[in-house]
Amino acid sequence: MSVKIIMCARYSHAALAALWLVAAVDVAAYAQGGDSAHGTLDLGTHGAIVPDAPARTGTAQDGPESIVDFSARAGIMTDYIYRGTTLSARQPAVGAAFEAALAMLYGAGTVASVNLPSRPVAEVSLGGGIRPKLGDLQFDLGALYYAYPGETPPVGVTAGINYWEATARADTKLGELMRIAGGFAYSPNVSNTGAWSKYAAFGVGIDLLGKFLPRDVSASVTGGAGYFWFGAQSAALGGFPLPAYLNWNAGIVHAQEP
Q: What is the rounded CA–CA span in Å between residue 19 and residue 45?
């Protein structure tokens, strides 16, 4: 078990116009969980406490009978930020995630509190995929469905903001201390607006040398950037193109083992 703290600063020059929300997001600092000191890098996926990392924290049972690897985690953050845009109205959010993996195959889900214009009770994601490895490259190819139960769509809108997205990413290490990752995501109907969306991101992490840290303490410096661009909304929502924007993040991840 470990205690993890991430300090992140994020910026976007235009805001996500999906979710019936068009607003600029400025520079701020947030304490967030999810990226372990030696884990995967945040490339911008849903899930609150687990932005990109698999939920694996240990197997449910040990020994030769352990065919499926089950894991779960939960946590709290001061703001749930998704690709540079707050999904909790700059308020604290809680979340939980689970995963079941069989060899390269996995199924996963997350539940997170949100504060959106349609007032859903939570954000729930369910999906799965495959994680093949080619040399030093670890791939993750999957798809997720995002649901917002209990929401009340705006007047004149008959459908909610549920949608699905396909994702692909690759991670590798350069030497003993540096980790890099790249990813791409596509949705044919983001937030049920009628507009397609594409997101490309790159991240890097540098693990700090243990000789400069106390015993049983690990830390890393992480950062990344992503670009989000869209097609035009449906005619019922006005038919105008949603604005593209750039976002970035930087932080220090700290973990202490008991």
A: 16
